[in-house]
Amino acid sequence: MPIWTSDDLGKIDAADELQLGSTRRDGTLRKPVTIWVVRHGDDLYVRSVNGRTSTWFRGVQDCHEGHIHAGGVDKDVAFIAAGDDVNDAIDSAYRTKYHHYSAAYVDPIVSSEAQAATLKLVPRSNTK
Questions:
Q1: Fewest CB atoms within 10 Å of the CB: 10, 21, 46, 49?
Q2: Residue 42, number of CB atoms within 10 A of its CB
Q3: 128 is a domain residue
Q4: Is the residue at 68 inside a domain?
Q5: What CATH number should be reported for the domain holding residue 113?
Q6: E strand or H helix at 72, and its extent?
Q7: How many CA atoms lie within 13 A of 110 on its CB side?
Q8: Residue 39 counted as domain residue
């Protein structure tokens, strides 16, 4: 399985926001959405603040692939459902990284609804 370079991890982790476009069934990308991203170890995670019913999250379920841009890094990725075992660590990462925002913004991203919509970003090779 491909892994992130330490340079890519650092740049994406330093970025406040990430642009995420999921792949449609016909292979084209949807319009990117702006979301928060966190790092846990050598992995990157995103969550849907509105849970599994949000438009962008449902779109990811079509092909489980897409493209991200953050911190000067452009990368094709696979979206992998995160296990419940990382929820506490991801919650902590969100609270730490985004502590400068009010609780009105941070609390929803660490809610049980958002936890259920946690995705691990895995880099993909651009060749098939």
A1: 10
A2: 10
A3: no
A4: yes
A5: 2.30.110.10
A6: none
A7: 18
A8: yes
**Alpha-carbon distances, residue 74 vs 8, 27, 86 (angstroms):** 9, 17, 25
| Domain with 60 in it | 6-123
Q: Give φ, ψ of 95 to 5 degrees.
A: -65, -40
Contacts of 86 (CB under 8 A, 6+ apart): 40, 45, 118
Which tokens is 110 given? 């660490």
pLDDT tens, position by position, 91-117: 999 999 999 999 999 999 999 999 999
How does DSSP classify residue 23? B
Alpha carbon distance 24, 93 (integer Å): 30
Length of the chain: 128
Most distant CA pair in the chain, distance: 43
Which stretches of the chain are assigned E, i.e. beta strand? 18-22, 33-35, 37-40, 43-47, 65-70, 73-81, 118-123
pTM of whole model > 0.90? Answer: yes
Q: Is 89 a domain residue?
A: yes
Residue 128 has what pLDDT?
A: 41
